[in-house]
Amino acid sequence: MSEHQCAPGCGHPSHGEAARAQEELAQARRDLGGEFPASASARVTGVPVTPGTIPGVGMARHHFVPATDKTVHWGHFSAALAPLVEVQSGDFVTVETLTHQAPDDTERMVRGDPGAESVFRWDAKQKNVDRRGAGAMDSPVGAGGGLGAHVCTGPVAVKGAQPGDVLEVRIIDVHLRPCGNPQYAGKAFGSNAAGWWGFHYGDTVEEPKKREVITIFELDTSGERNWARAVYNFRWTPQTDPFGVVHSIMDYPGVPVDHSTITKNYDVLKGYRIPIRPHFGVMGVAPATSELVNTNPPSFTGGNIDNWRIRKGATMYYPVAAAGALFSVGDPHASQGDSELCGTAIECSLTGTFQLILHKQGSLAGTALEGLTYPLLKTADEWIVHGFSYGDYLTELGPDAQSAIFEKSSMDRAMRAAYRNMRHFLMTTQGLSEDEAIALMSIAVDFGVTQVVDGNWGIHAIVKKSLFPADRE
Predict the structure, then answer these.
(1) Residue of 460, 456, 463 whose CA lies nearest to 428
(2) d(CA 240, CA 225)
(3) How far does Cα 293 stand from its chain's mean position?
(4) Helix axes 411-429, 434-444, angle to 10 degrees
């Protein structure tokens, strides 16, 4: 398989490889006797699987990266992270991801799953993944300070990728990670945390005004039910972690909730069926810096975009900022609405299969990727551009950027960025004049709030492919 550098929409024969990968994944699941690789370590070898080629799959260069305490980086990105595997342009990679909210209900989201158990193991003597965030290791709330919440699997290096290139990520497959606890066979679970960082916090009508609430949801992994139902909710109470630190609020990710200290309310959202649309809240490439960067704020290299449209069948394009690109994925969601208003989605562990295609800088002229400075999303019917309050906040806000971004974000700036990015997209890909692009945006482009909870607020702009002349889709 040679390095693929085609422009979006080209008819190169290798584009058919995505369909073949789907069939080979299905065959791999059949060969392994069940969902693959929901927990390959448990169902195949009995010990954690290391990154490498998927066993039993005939197609060359299809890689597998499990989620274990040795393969995740929690709450931070960096150009200095060592890649778990290096792939060629055009290769496929299947990646397991775990939700950082799993310890909200350990019995349902951790117990019996060797990968999850290895990542979330934390007792008085041992904490398998110590650093959680980009902050100080001696932070009073815990190592890393919780400055970055997400469990990310990776990174995956792409051979030959350099700053100025663009990485195309095709999302071939996404499926739920089944619960490993036999008591809940055939189910998966997720957690929605209405936290202190939510847009709603303090702007409530019931008492106490400032409260944090967890809602646990159940999903079906058999494919018979495509909706989630609420199981119970509870208000956060001060939790003492295994090292003795008391967390009066949700200020540190992965604190195991002691269910003897909470009151469960099972009378929650009765009769409501929440349509599932599995997607990855965090997906992208490394920043240019070798310093540790908080995973919470998104940027031009992607990261915590929190757009539910980044799902199976979609394609993302990311400007490469570091050698090797260093692709990581995490923050898996079963469902989310635009804005992610209360702070989280239905946070639910997922497994995804991706095709990674490198577009070298010299091949971008005349394509939709020319001059790309923002994450670009393509679906079957739409092109979607993303705008943030600060697209490259690490550069724009100076040495205090990682704290300043939480103080300076605004919807006005995010909307301005989305407008400018869509203007660029229309003028570059459609050959429109600026006046034409502005008119088209006002009458046919839908702007929406992506999220208002991630520090660097986001607006997306959607344009239907059907608007374009047939030769320009």
Answers:
(1) 463
(2) 37
(3) 16
(4) 120
Distance CA 320, CA 358 (A): 9
Domain ranges of the chain: 13-179+275-357, 382-472
What's the whole-model pTM score? 0.90
Q: Are 35 and 29 in contact (CB under 8 A)?
A: yes
Pair 344, 101: CB distance under 8 Å: yes
C-alpha distances (whole Å) from 82 to each of 63, 86, 92, 128, 290 are: 17, 10, 19, 18, 11
The answer regarding whether domain 382-472 maps to CATH 3.40.50.880 reads: no
**How much is the CA Rg of the chain, to the nearest whole Å?**
21
Element (H, E) at 407: helix 401-408
Q: What's the burial of 60, exposed, middle or buried (CB within 10 Å: 0-12/13-18/19+)?
A: exposed
pLDDT tens, position by position, 131-164: 999 999 999 999 999 999 999 999 999 999 999 9
* Shared fold status for 13-179+275-357 and 382-472: no
Buried b (16+ CB within 10 A) or exposed e, 228-258: bbbbbbbebeebebeeeeebeebbbbbbbbe
Q: Domain 13-179+275-357 sits in which CATH superfamily?
A: Acetamidase/Formamidase-like domains (2.60.120.580)
Question: Would you say how long the chain is, in residues?
Answer: 473
Q: Which residues pair with 463 in a beta bridge?
A: 383
CA pair distance 407, 416, nearest whole angstrom: 18
Residue 441 corresponds to which tokens in the numbers above? Answer: 């945006």
pLDDT tens-place string over residues 283-320 = 999 999 999 999 999 999 999 999 999 999 999 999 99
> Per the structure block, which two tokens stand in for 138?
């001696």
Q: Is the peptide bond before 155 cis (omega within 30 degrees of 0)?
A: yes
* Cβ neighbours of 78 (radius 10 Å): 18
